[in-house]
From TrEMBL:
GO terms for cellular component: mitochondrial matrix. This is Enoyl-CoA delta isomerase 1, mitochondrial. Coiled coil: none annotated. Homotrimer.
């Protein structure tokens, strides 16, 4: 297995990781021949519709800034774009870390786009759910250091994105909330959402949190370990980059193998049940009672505004 350490290509044997180290191998072998030449975007932002991605050549850190108005909801298009960007960065030897943040000063991400789950065909629902899975697999299984700079509220799928990172820094603002609130919408967080939360805050806190669909203020999120640090809003990016440099001081190969060892069982669980998870989602979301709940929730969101 090939790993990269400070620009050197190291070779080791073994089968430690599925999603982690295998994709690293992919990175070290394919990037040279199949990716567009790195110099085509190195050091410059490459802008997409729903996010900007800026890789700093000097530090090896990329910033993905989500910018889908109004609230960074995770639509099929957004998720597809996100997975492509993660794949590009993963295969770029220069990139060792990613900071995920939002251009909206109040909202990190509103979670899955509810419109993608309401009134859609089973085919569309299946395609959407595969894209949600892919986003999580890419983020949770990344070899890069991933830091969420949570500069606003982050319900449900937004919280999942943060949970999939290695470290979470949240803006210290009592108005911001984060959590897996699915039950409040009458839906159920799938097993890999639940696993992601257990791996961060533990089983008891997750059970409490999921059953009640709790959203935590920034300070309560810190208390239960859902986020690692609170920082003033205007310092969040500087702080995230400084934490990143601490993580990048660890040799990549050692950190990556350790990360993979910790995360492989959780990743494998989804990878081996991927198709049945999609089928479960499609069956569940197609039920009249669930569609009714989503309709009421969408109406409530619109009314709240007026
Ligand atoms: C047993 C087997 C189980 C198998 C699997 C089964 C089930 C599937 C599980 C699915 C897991 C779901 C995960 C999710 O992520 S569901 C989404 C959860 N998200 C939320 O509940 C957030 C709802 N939104 C809010 O709380 C707020 O909008 C806010 C994000 C805090 C922002 O507040 P504010 O700045 O005041 O903005 P507005 O509320 O005025 O919203 C602006 C417009 O954005 C629309 N909006 C908001 N969130 C969403 C969303 N998630 N999707 C789509 N659209 C959204 C909102 O309606 C406003 O639209 P308008 O301008 O047209 O009125």
């Amino acid at each position: 297995m090939a790993v990269l350490l400070n620009g050197l290509r190291l070779v080791s044997s073994g089968n430690l990781s599925l999603h982690g180290i295998k994709s690293l191998q992919y990175k070290s072998t394919r990037i040279l021949c199949q990716l567009p030449c790195k110099s085509s975007y190195q050091g410059r932002p490459f802008s997409n519709k729903n996010m900007t991605v800026e890789l700093d050549n000097n530090t090896g850190v990329a910033v993905i800034q989500m910018k889908k108005p109004p609230v960074n909801s995770l639509s099929l298009e957004f998720l597809t774009e996100f997975a492509i960007n993660m794949e590009k960065l993963e295969m770029d030897r220069e990139c060792r870390g990613v900071v995920l943040t939002s251009s909206n000063p109040k909202i990190f991400s509103a979670g899955l786009d509810i419109n993608e789950m309401y009134g859609k065909t089973p085919e569309h629902s299946g395609e959407f759910w595969r894209a949600v899975q892919e986003m999580w697999l890419k983020l949770y299984g990344s070899n890069m250091v991933t830091i969420a700079a949570i500069n606003g509220s982050s319900p449900a799928g937004g919280c999942l994105m943060a949970l999939a990172c290695d470290y979470r820094i949240m803006a210290d603002n009592p108005k911001y909330a984060i959590g897996l609130n699915e039950t409040k919408l009458g839906i159920v967080a799938p097993f890999w959402f639940k696993d992601s939360m257990i791996n961060v805050i533990g089983r008891r806190a997750t059970e409490h949190s999921l059953q009640l669909g709790l959203m935590y203020s920034a300070s309560n999120a810190l208390k239960i370990g859902l986020v690692d640090q609170l920082v003033a809003q205007d310092k969040i990016m500087t702080h995230a980059l400084s934490v990143m440099s601490e993580w990048l001081a660890i040799p990549d190969h050692a950190r990556q193998i350790t990360k993979s060892m910790m995360r492989k069982p959780t990743l494998d669980r989804l990878l081996t049940n991927r198709e049945s998870d999609i089928q479960n989602f499609v069956n569940f979301i197609s039920k009249d009672s669930i569609q009714k709940s989503l309709q009421l929730y969408l109406e409530m969101l619109k009314q709240r505004k007026s």
